[in-house]
Structures are given as C-alpha cells and as structure tokens.
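Sample entry (417 residues):
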Amino acid sequence: MNDDVARWVLLTEFVALAPVGAYYRYRANTRERLDRKQEGWLFLLSLRPLGVLFMLGMMAYLWQPQWMEWSRLPLPGIVRWFGVGLGCAAGVLLVWTFRTLGHNLTDTVVTRRAATLVTDGPYRWVRHPFYVAFALIVLANSLVASNGYLLLTGMACFGLMVARSGKEERKLVERFGSAYSEYAQTTGRFIPRIASRMYQHSEGTNNARSKPRWGWSELAVFLFTLVYLVPFGIICMCGGNREFLLYLGVMITLIPMIAWLHARIELHIGTLWGLSLWGLAHLAGGLVLIPESWHHDDEPVLYDLWLLPGIIRYDQLVHAFGFGLTTWLCWQGLRAAVRHVQGGTLYPTWGLLTLCMLSGMGLGALNEMVEFIAVLNIPNTNVGGYTNTGWDLVFNAIGAALSAFAIAVWDRPSQAA
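Predicted structure, serialized as tokens:
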C-alpha cells in the first residue's frame, strides 16, 4: 500500500463516519447546559488538546504526506491493509454505539436530566464501547498511515479516557445507584468479561471493598509515563530506530491493559510507579548515549554499561527489577482472585510464592520472545545472542526470587492475627 491509497482509505473513513457522528450528536442535543468542569481541570486541559493534535496530524497526512514523513513507521504493506480491516470493524462498533446511546450521548462525564441506563447493544459486552471504538480507530489509522505520531497522540488520548472513565462511572453510580453497580459487576469496562466471570463473587461475602477508583496518584503516574514516552517516541521515529519503536509499541499496548487490571484488582500504587519507571529505564537503556570512556560492551549506550565491571551490567539490573516487579504483580492478581471467589485475605506461603515466581519468570521469557522477533525482523539490533539471553533469564529469576522473599516478609500475618 502506498500513501495515495492510504489517503483515500482514510478520507473515505472520515466521509463515512463524520456525518454519522454529527447526526447522532445533533439528535441528542437538548440545549441542556452540562457542567464540564465536573470532569476536573486535568482532563479539561489535556484530553481535548491532545485530540486536536491527533486531528492536526491526520489533516497534515491527508493534505501532504511528506509533512509527516519524520514520524513514518517502516510497516509492511500487509500490516497497513490489516489496519483497513480493523478500521472497518471499529467503524461498525462506533455506529452501533451511537445508535444504541441515542439521546444519552454526551461528550463529558455528566449525564443529561432525561438520561436512561443503557445496557443493551454493545453495552451488553463492555461498559465503554465508545472508548474501545476510538482506540481501535486510532490504531487502524496509525497502521494505514504507517505513522508513529498518530499512534502516540491517539493512544495518549485513549489513556486519558481510561483514567477519566473512573470519574464517569462514579457519576453513573450517583445517578442510577445499585442498577449501575450490578451492571458493572457483570460487564467489563473495556474488555468483554467472559473468562473473568469466574471472579464474580456471590452476595453476602465479606469482600466489602468498593471498586478501585482513579485518583490523582494514578493520574500522576500516567502523566509521568506520557512525559517520557512522547520524546522517546519522537527520537525513535526521527532516528529510524525500528528496534525501540517495536518496544515502544509494546509499551503503548500494555498501558491500557495495566489500566484495566488496576480497575479490576486495585494494584498497589507502588506497582504502577514501578512499571512506569521500568519502562523509562528500558527506553533510556537503548536510547541514552554514554561517554566512550565509560566501561561498556559493544555500543556506547546505557544497556551496555557495566555498573560493576565484570559483575553486573545496566540491562541485567533492569531485568531483575522489572521481573521482580511482575512477580509482585502476579501475587496481587492471585490475592485479588481468591478474595473475589472466596472472600477473606490470602497470606503468602512458599508454594504460592513459587507459583508467582514462575509466573514472573514466564513473563520474562515472553520478553525474550519479543527480543527474538526483533532480531529476526530488524537488522543490527543490540539484543539476542545465547550468552546475553542466558544472563537475562538468570537475572529475571534473581529479581523474581528477591520479590518473593520481600512479599513473604511484608505480607505475612501479624502476630496479633
């Protein structure tokens, strides 16, 4: 697929969907004043400006593709055509959502006075199909245009929508009470709750904790992550660093997944900060140059820096930290699953901690598979090799073991219990 075909595809999508959106918004407009300040100034001052930046990028690509050449992604034609199919599916979902919402459609977290609770159509499967459709359209358009700027700005918008959805749901609970709470217990926020129905707990259990909510702590983590993702993304695109563009894409994919997981089980805020810092350490490892005089292996970048010559390198420390963190995340997931099913509190045993260690190490092995894909498809990567992979796995295991030991100390039952 060349840029001329891609532009016609994107223009056709716009011509098809824009009038539909305008029509349903016109039908839903009752001239009722909605207090958008209830969103909070953070969202008012960030979400819509980011949306404008995304649209400006789209317009620039449609008008003169060479204006966006600086952020081009080296995607094969089949991936761009996959984006066309994904865009068609997302368009259907968007129209279905518009049609189902009807007069309830708004662009803010505040409901209209005459609003009704909608639980059919796409809302039967997820609580926020509009946001899901938006994320899929962003991904589809980015693939079709083969453009990283569109992907970064669009996914940043989606991340803010994910964060804002917590406040939106609190407003819906205030408006519809237990009806919405019961609906939320059986319907996923962004992903259909099919396999996860095993987590539904019966009435009367002692699990009285309210659903996790997004607060300023979580938003601070998101904004911190956004602050380093955008400049590193631009560096990758301008420098043609395909290896770290791949890793950046993986991170952008993981952020909504972590947000969804946090909404389900309320991860410790330290886990969220740790994941964000891990992402920063990983991107900095491959993109931050070090002086030639410093003790390093092949390339003068942080990942090849020997922190203690002959003992430990920067990348090995990052592996230990990261997969120790994922072991802690696995423990929190296991604990939440047991709490949802049986109630009560799960305390660590060495058998359970071994299971979490193996899960964390398994995620480490999945990371090595991503690096293997990079080695097979991208020339001159600074990863791979039998010895390098072996040491990565060793430090993954060290990090997982240290994490398990820390959990055993911190989460043990008190003597009073």
